[in-house]
Structures are given as C-alpha cells and as structure tokens.
Amino acid sequence: MIVHEVKLALYALDIAVLFKGAIVEQGDTKKILRNPLHSYTQLLIKALLGIEGRKERKILEKAIEIQRSGSILEALKRCPFALRCPQAIFLLAMS
After folding, report:
1. Who has greater pLDDT, 47 or 21?
2. How far apart are the C-alpha atoms of 84 and 19, rounded to whole Å?
3. For 38, which of 3, 25, 55, 92 could close a Cys bridge (C-beta 3.0–4.6 Å)?
4. Where is the Oligopeptide/dipeptide ABC transporter C-terminal domain (predicted)?
5. pLDDT in tens, 67-89
6. 5-11 CB contacts, 8 Å cutoff, 24+ apart
7. SS3 3
C-alpha cells in the first residue's frame, strides 16, 4: 500500500518512508514512530503530531558521529533528503 496521508500508514505493521522515490527508512511501524532515525521521518512525525523542533543535543551528537566517521560530503551524497535536512545543513555549517 502506498499512501500520501501519513495517518493511514499508522495502521500498517511495517512501513517504508520514501523521499523522491528513495527509501530513507523502513521497518516496524511502532519502532519507527517511537524512534525515527532519518531526519525526514522525524520531520514527518513532527508535522503529524504538531511537535516543534528537535533536541539540539541529538543533532549535535549525530553531527559529531558523522564527522568522526569520515567524509561529510560522502554521507550527504547517500541521502536524497540531504539538501533539505536540518542535520545536513548543520553539518555543513560546522565543517
């Protein structure tokens, strides 16, 4: 089932979140809703729930993790959401 109404996806056991036709996150619906790993998924859930912002500490931790792992640009190339991603913009600003 493909849906554009996020609320309908909540009834599925497993979901795949797509951005521009690329899967950015997939797995058990409850796990993804409780702990979304991809920033696009996080933004979708915030929009659904009406939640403002994201904990800055988590953003900083993710930025540090990516910086330590190697090339920021390589990490950004792998994600189709990178040019609109708050975390990616933060990483580029730090580099």
Report:
1. 21
2. 11
3. 25
4. 24-88
5. 666 666 776 777 888 777 777 77
6. 6/44, 6/45, 6/47, 6/48, 7/48
7. coil
Least confident range of 35-39, 40-44, 50-54, 88-92: 50-54
Distance CA 59, CA 37 (A): 11
Contact criterion met (CB below 8 Å) for 32 and 15? yes
Rg from Cα positions in the chain: 14
The residue ranking higher by pLDDT, 27 or 53, is 27
Cβ neighbours, 10 Å, residue 95: 11
Residues 56 and 15: their CA atoms lie apart, in Å, by 27
**Taking the model in full, what pTM does it have?**
0.57
